[in-house]
Each structure stands twice: as C-alpha cells, then as structure tokens.
Design goal:
Elements: E1 2-8, H1 14-28, E2 32-38, H2 48-58, E3 67-71, E4 85-89, H3 101-105, E5 110-113, H4 116-124, E6 132-134, E7 159-166, H5 173-183, E8 190-197, H6 205-218, E9 229-232, H7 238-246, E10 250-253, H8 262-269, E11 274-277, E12 291-294, E13 296-300, H9 303-308, E14 316-320, H10 322-334, H11 336-350, H12 355-367, E15 385-391, H13 398-412, E16 416-422, H14 433-436, H15 438-444, E17 453-457, E18 471-474, H16 484-491, E19 497-500, H17 503-511, E20 519-521, E21 548-553, H18 562-572, E22 579-584, H19 596-606, E23 613-616, H20 625-630, E24 634-636, H21 646-653, E25 658-661, E26 676-678, E27 680-685, E28 689-690, E29 693-694, E30 699-704, H22 706-718, H23 720-737, H24 740-755
Parallel strand pairs: 1-2, 1-3, 3-4, 4-5, 5-6, 7-8, 7-10, 8-9, 10-11, 11-12, 15-16, 15-17, 17-18, 18-19, 19-20, 21-22, 21-24, 22-23, 24-25, 25-26
Antiparallel strand pairs: 13-14, 27-30, 28-29
Length: 756
C-alpha cells in the first residue's frame, strides 16, 4: 500500500510523537510511506536514526498514493489531496468538537480517532458515523526502558508522584494541587514532581512557582506548609523521559479532557501505575487494574479556560473530584506492593499500543476504505470547470476578500463549479453565515469528482501538489523582484500557472526569471452591488461635526506608508483645521504586529494642537466596509509597495476621491482624472530577505514625499467640489471596467485552458 502521511513530525507535540510512531510502524510493516512534515513549532525533538528515517521517507518518490492521511486538527483538513482514498487522523478533548470541524470531516473518506469517546463525541457533533473508525494511539515502546536508571532529582524523597503536562486548566493542575494538599501533610514522606511546559504563554519555573503559591492561597492552603513539590521545566530527551518515569512510583493525570493522554501511557509502559480521571482519552487504557480512576462530573468549560482556548466555548468537560484524587494518592502511598502489582498490569496494558501493532490496525482500516471522489475524467466543453479555491475564505482580511469575491464571480459565469477550502481553518463568524450565502455551502459541499484545476491564494503560499489537475498559485508581491522559491516552483513545474493582480507585479516575476507565458495578470476588482456611491454610511462612530474626513485603511506598517501619512498629517493640518483622519487597521486579529505607528497615533490623539485622529481597530464584517468608505470624504493610501491595493479600488467604486502614489499597480485601474496622484521617488533597501523570504534583488519600492502628500490632501480639503467630481469619475470608471465579473472572465478563460 502506498501511503502519503501529512502532519507534524519533528516537534515535541503529541501529534508529532504519534505521527512518528505511525509512519515508523507502517514502514516496518512493508507499506510504501511518503511523509510531508508540517512545522507546528520551531522546537525540534528528533535526531539520529529517527531523523534519518524521516528524511528518507520525505525524499521518497511516489506515484499516485493509494491513501493520503492528514494527521491534523479537523479545521485544517483539505479535501482535495493526492490519493485514491483520503483519510484524517484527529482527536479532541471535550464532549464535542469545534464549530466547522464536522463539515470538513464529512468531506473525507474516513475519520480515524483514537478512542470510543471520540467516536461518540464526533458523531454527536454531526460527523457521519459511517466515516468514523477507532484506532488507538501508537507508541515507540522500545524507546521506553522499564529498567532505566532513574533520573536524579535531588529534592525527591519517599513516594514520588509524577505529572507531565502543558500548563493549562484542561490538564487540571489546580485540581492536582488541591488534591495533593488534601492527601498529605507538610512532613509526609512524599514528593510531587511536575514536569511542565507552557504552550500558551512563556513561563519559567519561577513564574510557575509563584502561580502555584497564588493558587494554593485561593484554595485555602498555606503555601509554606505544602507537601514537597518539585518543578522541572526543561525539555527532556526520550532517554531522559524514560529515566524520569523510572524515578517516580505513580503517574498522575487529573485531566479535564484528553484526546488520548500520551505521557500516562508512556508511564504505564515504564511499569508505573496511573491515577487518572475516568473520562475521555484515559478511559481507553486506565482503570482500577492498572491504577486508580478519579471520579468526576461533567461541567461547562469555564470562561477562564475559554480564554486559554477559545474553541472550548460552549463545551463540557470533566471536573475531577479533588477528594477522590486525595483518596487515590493516600492509597497508592500506603500500599507499595499494590503499586508494584498495578504497575505490572499497566506495563502489559501499554504493550497493546506498540507502534507496529497499531500501525497494522491503521493499515487494515485504510485498506478497506472506498473512495468518494471519482477520478478526474477528460473534460468536454462546454461542461463547467470544477475548480477548488484554497486559501483564506472566512477571515476579515484582503486575501480572504479576494478569494470570496473571485469565487462568487467565477460561479456567476456559469462556466465554473466552485468548491472552497479555508486553509486557515476558520468557520464563518457568528451571524455572518447568512450574509456569506453560497460561500458557506461551497465550503461544506464536496465536488463529485477531483477538481479540474486547483487555485490557491494564501500567505505564505502553499505549493505542495494538488490531488489532481493543474495548480494555479495566486502570489502577489510588493517589493520588486519576486521571491526565489516562488519563481523556482513555477520554473520546476510544481506550479502550473502564477496569477498576479497587476502588470506591475508581473514585471517583478519576469525580472526574477519566471516563464512569461505562465505568469498571468488576473486583476482584482470590486463588487458594484456593494461598493457604490449610495447606501448606508455608518460603519464606525464618527462625530457629525462637519469636518472633512480623510481615511486610511490597512496595516500600520512601513510598506503601507503609514509613517509618511502621519508625518504629512502633522505638517499639513492643525487642530483648528476642519479635518479629521480616520485610521482603520486590522486590530489584534490582523496580520500585522503592534509597532511604533500605534504609539505615534496615540501621541497625536493626546496632542491638543494636532488635528484630530480617530483610530479604529475593530474587526468589521465585509458588508460594513462600503459604509465606512461612504462615511468619509477622501481616501489616502501613500503605499510604498503593493500588488494591487484593494482599498483604493473599493473606495473609488464608492465615489471617493483617492490620494495615491503616481505609478505602481493603482495606475492600471486609476487613469488620469479618476485619482489624485502624488509623485514618487524610487527607494532601494539593501536587503535580500523579507520576513524570511529570500529575494534575488534588493527590495525596490517607490515613496511619496510627506510634504507633497500633505499638499495633495490639503488641496482635496480646500476644493471639495473638485474632489467630489474626481470621486464621481472614479466610481463610473470602476463600475464599467474593474468589477469582479471582469476579473472572473479572465480567470475562467485561463482555467478552461488549463483544464484542457
């Protein structure tokens, strides 16, 4: 069997550890395995023979795989992948799964989960029960030595209890501390060893110690009289973890919910009994024969835990009984012979999950699957092209907006059948599903055959092969010569065609050596039904004081020219001028980090002599943007580098005069008389890398002068009639020449050629 396995493999996460065990087991059983490792963390935890094995499996050439397995969270599943059969290996920790998972999973041929608990919770959440299969977690048990020399823990004494976990409320660290203090007194001969890490926030052992002390006080315990606790927070190798298990007598997992619970199983393989909550993942392998189970009750996930992981909102999980935990702790301490007996049983139980045995179960399940997607037949015109559009879809940023509007327009031609795959794993925001209309259905439905063409538009670009047919990559670039890797993907045939939104961008690709016949301008556009001069004009709260309103839309970054705009604002206007600058950025959910521009804006807002500035970072739904444009008098976008600059096109379509740099991509849709342009000067920045992306030439952009920008803004303010006339011409031009329907006509022509 030829198996393509895609998921995290290099980092210390549970998903990566399980993935390594699966692919090793299938490889040793004779399956032809190829891996595509996803990078979930900059921290790597593989070396030696294990790294060599993964490198060999990653470099293996493979014809069409029999099966592709995506080992990822449900929201990241991609339905149109290589392979006759498409399976997902995933899991979740609560009584249900996050919104959006079921729709993704129902597009697949199989959903493999590790426990009966997950089979029930996934089905209850809407996953087709016929797709669900249970295969337990695999473990490389030859890496866990029951006779390992114990790790030296100088502070440990007496009965040693171990817990290893990510410092989140789901792991029940607060229950663990409460039960520990209820079970033992200050001078009892016991030690609690906490092997911890912190995924959600960087915390040192000192930080965690302080948090433990604060939590104990809240629970009514005296931190100075707690039985001994030792915190270990460094990353341990596999041999060191074996030594850590050997150094303890009992493993603890008072969890509120697990997909499985890997450290508990590893401790059992080391011959240690386990005290665990009798619910979710641990219920598949831990019972009174192999340890002690903690009684629990199901409760709603509290707000504090939702702040750590928003996808838990509305879910229920287990609340372990601290008195039940305390009773189990005391019993385990008091009966050393029983600890040993249950540890032996735990070792035998863990052997069921050896990587070869579990990989064999997985291969048996995969081998019995029936594909739901037909092979891509020869397309006969005039049948519509089946196109999968992959990328951001339901986010509130420009890449997602382009994908949504281009998909809608291509479908309107009647020449394309569209399926949507949100690579960011987002579902529609609450209350937006109705407004998004067919887009939601296109993201949930499965094409009846493999796509004729796949179109991907994401950042960074995803360049792995599609399941079938040609691959189009939409890859705008703003800094001159196009990135080396992107051009190489096109030259080497990994990408069949590159689409860019402007000839300005295309020329950057050609300078980098791209094949000119396979770099095509498919412009962006506007939806004239939404972006029009008349309509609602209240998207954000603005004072009705008669001031002339300038608007800037976009990230507060150097490329967008926000520094030039703020400098021009300071120089051209004062508080007694009848103007206000509205800065609309993307907020915390956007792609740009907070920077010095935010502080500059805050300082202007505090300065009584400065012309007023309104800064809005709210996340606006797509239907609110036209109202925002209509609520102001002029758009100002002094960008240094853009691939298209969608806010300019949208504002023009709403009848706004726009102040923009001369030349660049906006010149391709804003001819003379439709915009207020400011002369630019070329700027070359001597660097060959942008955000880790290598480019063949130094960064090349164009820059407007702040004084000239201020003068242009002042002219628009002082001659409002002329500015309004410019905006009216802009709206007429955009509605007649630069709509998404115009863009879709170009796109579908290209798709039909590629499909043929």
């Amino acid at each position: 069997m030829r198996v393509l396995w895609r998921g995290p493999l290099l980092d210390p996460s549970g998903y990566a550890e399980g993935g390594r065990a699966f692919v090793r087991g299938m490889d040793e059983l004779g399956a032809e395995v190829r891996v595509e490792a996803l990078r979930w963390s900059p921290v790597e935890s593989v070396e030696g023979a294990e790294r060599a094995r993964l490198a060999r499996l990653s470099g293996r050439a493979m014809a069409e795989p029999d099966v592709s397995v995506q080992h990822v969270f449900g929201r990241f599943v991609r339905p149109y992948v290589p392979g006759r059969v498409r399976a997902v290996r995933t899991m979740f920790e609560t009584d249900r799964i996050p919104d959006g998972w079921a729709a993704r999973l129902n597009q697949m041929d199989a959903v493999v989960v590790p426990t009966a608990h997950n089979r029930e919770s996934f089905a209850r959440a809407g996953v087709d029960p016929g797709l669900l299969h249970v295969v337990p977690e695999p473990f490389e048990l030859d890496g866990i030595d029951p006779a390992a020399r114990p790790l030296e823990i100088p502070e440990a004494h007496g009965t040693v209890f171990l817990a290893a976990f990510d410092w989140t409320l789901r792991k029940g660290w607060d229950v663990l501390l409460d039960g520990w203090c209820r079970a033992f007194a200050e001078h009892d001969d016991v030690t609690l060893v906490l092997k911890v890490w912190s995924t959600h926030a960087a915390r040192s052992a000192e930080d965690l110690g302080a948090e433990v002390a604060e939590a104990l006080v809240r629970m009514g315990h005296d931190p100075a009289r707690v039985p001994d606790v030792v915190i270990l927070d460094r990353l341990l190798s596999r041999p060191e973890m074996s030594a850590l298990y050997a150094a303890c007598d009992v493993y603890l997992a008072p969890t509120r919910g697990e997909g499985w619970g890997r450290p508990a199983t590893e401790a059992m393989a080391a011959g240690r009994p386990v005290i665990a909550t009798g619910w979710s993942g641990p219920s598949a392998f831990c019972d009174q024969a192999t340890g002690w189970t903690i009684p629990h009750r199901l409760v709603p996930v509290p707000d504090a835990a939702v702040r750590e992981a928003a996808h838990f909102a509305g879910h229920r999980w287990a609340e372990p009984d601290p008195d039940g935990l305390a009773a189990a702790l005391r019993d385990a301490h008091a009966r050393p012979a029983e600890r040993v007996a249950r540890g032996r049983a735990a070792r035998e139980r863990a052997l069921r999950f050896d990587h070869r045995r579990v990989a064999g179960e997985m291969l048996e399940v995969l081998g019995a699957l029936t594909p739901r997607l037909a092979d891509r037949p020869a397309r006969r015109a005039p049948a519509p092209v089946a196109v999968a559009v992959e990328g951001a879809v339901f986010a509130r940023h420009s890449l997602a907006a382009v994908n949504r509007d281009l998909a809608r327009a291509m479908a309107r031609t009647g020449r394309a059948r569209v399926a949507l795959v949100d690579l960011e794993g987002r579902a529609p925001a609450d209350g937006e599903a109705a407004a998004l209309g067919d887009l939601v259905g296109w993201s949930r439905a499965l094409l009846d055959r493999r796509p004729d063409v796949t179109v991907r538009h994401s950042f960074p670009p995803v360049l792995d092969p599609p399941g079938a047919g040609p691959l189009v990559a939409i890859m705008p670039w703003e800094f001159g010569a196009a990135p080396v890797e992107w051009v190489a993907a096109q030259r080497e045939g990994r990408v069949d065609e590159v689409w860019v939104p402007s000839e300005h961008t295309r020329q950057g690709y050609l300078r980098s050596g791209a094949d000119p016949d396979r770099v095509v301008v498919v412009p962006n556009g506007v939806d004239p039904a939404r972006f029009r001069p008349r309509g609602p004009d209240r998207a954000i709260d603005l004072d009705d004081d008669g001031r002339f309103r300038f608007l800037f839309v976009g990230g507060l970054v150097w490329r967008k020219g926000i520094d030039i705009l703020l400098r021009a604002w300071e120089e051209a206007f004062r508080a007694d001028d009848g103007v206000v600058l509205v800065v609309k950025d993307f907020g915390a959910g956007g792609p740009y980090d907070r920077n010095v521009a935010h502080e500059w804006i805050a300082a202007l807002r505090r300065d009584p002599q400065a012309a007023p500035v309104v800064h809005n970072s709210d996340s606006l739904p797509e239907d609110a943007m036209p109202a925002l444009y209509r609520s102001v008098d002029c758009l100002v976008q002094p960008y240094r580098g853009e691939g298209y600059c969608l806010p300019v096109a949208e504002a023009m379509a709403c009848g706004l005069p726009v102040v923009i740099p001369e030349g660049g991509p906006t010149a391709e849709y804003a001819p003379p008389g439709t915009a207020i342009t400011v002369a630019t000067s070329p700027v070359v920045v001597p660097q060959l890398e942008v955000a880790g992306i290598v480019i063949p030439e130094p960064v090349t952009v164009a820059e407007v002068d702040a004084a000239a920008l201020g003068a242009a803004m002042r002219a628009a303010y002082e001659d409002r009639d002329a500015a309004r006339a410019t905006g009216a011409r802009a709206a007429a031009w955009m509605h007649g020449h630069h709509t998404w329907d115009h863009a879709a006509a170009v796109a579908v022509d290209r798709l039909e050629r590629l499909a043929a």
